[in-house]
Design a protein that fits this description.
Helices cover 41% and strands 14% of the residues. With 209 residues, it is α/β, with parallel strands linked by helices. It has a 5-stranded mixed sheet with strand order 3-2-1-4-5. 18% of the residues are buried.
C-alpha cells in the first residue's frame, strides 16, 4: 500500500458487538438472533484465531491516467442499467462548504461478460494529477453514473458531493440513477438513527472480505 506499507502477516479480528440492553430493547427476534450469532462468531475467533485475510483483488485498479479512466467508464455508458457500487472520499461533511470537496472516486461493477471490474482515481485537491483534467473527465463520469443503477452506503452523501463538485451535474438525473442504499439495510437491523456503519451488514453479506 502506498501509505500503509506491506500487508502485515498478523491479523487482529474485530467483530462489532452491540450492547445487550440496546439489542433486547428492540424486541425484535431477528435482531436478537443476529446479535447472538455475532457474539458466537466473536467468541469463536477469540478461541481459534483467524488467518490474515487479503482485501486486495486482482481487478482493483487505481489510476491517474485520464485516458484509462475514460476507457473504463465507457463500459458503463455502453451498458446502461449496470449495477454499480460507487463511493467517494471527501475532505468534509458539507458538500457546498468552502474548501470541502471530492478527493477520490471508486467505481466497481460486473461487466457484460460477468467479470468484476473497478476503477478508482483521485479528483479535486491541490496536488491531484487529475485536477487539470476535471473539465474533460466530468462529462464521462456523469454519463457513467446516469447510465448505471448505483448502490452505495449512505448514497445521499456521495450524490450531494458529486452534485457540488463535478461540473455540469444534473442532480435529478443522478438521484434517479441511485435506487439502492445499504444504509437502509443497516437501519432495518438497528431500527434507530445515528451511526449506521457498513460493518453491521458486511459480516453477513460480504463474508469473503
Amino acid at each position: 500500500h502506498p501509505i500503509f506499507g506491506p500487508i502485515p502477516d498478523v491479523r487482529i479480528p474485530m467483530v462489532p458487538i452491540q450492547s445487550p440492553r440496546i439489542v433486547y430493547a428492540t424486541q425484535n427476534p431477528r435482531v436478537i438472533t443476529r446479535w447472538k450469532s455475532h457474539l458466537k462468531t466473536a467468541l469463536t475467533l477469540a478461541r481459534d484465531g483467524a488467518k490474515p485475510t487479503s482485501y486486495d483483488r486482482s481487478w482493483f485498479k487505481i489510476t491517474e491516467d485520464p485516458g484509462e479512466i475514460e476507457r473504463s467508464l465507457q463500459d458503463l455508458i455502453d451498458n446502461p442499467g449496470t449495477l454499480l457500487c460507487f463511493d467517494t472520499e471527501t475532505t468534509g461533511l458539507k458538500p457546498w462548504a468552502e474548501g470541502q470537496g471530492v478527493v477520490f472516486m471508486m467505481f466497481r461493477w460486473t461487466n457484460k461478460a460477468g467479470k468484476p471490474k473497478s476503477i478508482g482515481f483521485p479528483w479535486d485537491f491541490a496536488t491531484s494529477s487529475i485536477k487539470p483534467f476535471i473539465d474533460r473527465l466530468s462529462p464521462t463520469v456523469l454519463k457513467a453514473l446516469y447510465s448505471s443503477k448505483i448502490v452505495g452506503h449512505n448514497t445521499t452523501f456521495d450524490i450531494m458531493f458529486v452534485a457540488a463538485n463535478v461540473p455540469g451535474c444534473d442532480l435529478d438525473k443522478l438521484c434517479n440513477a441511485a435506487p439502492y442504499d445499504t444504509w437502509h439495510m443497516a437501519y432495518t437491523m438497528r431500527q434507530q438513527t445515528g451511526s449506521l456503519g457498513l460493518e453491521l451488514i458486511a459480516y453477513d453479506w460480504a463474508k469473503d472480505m
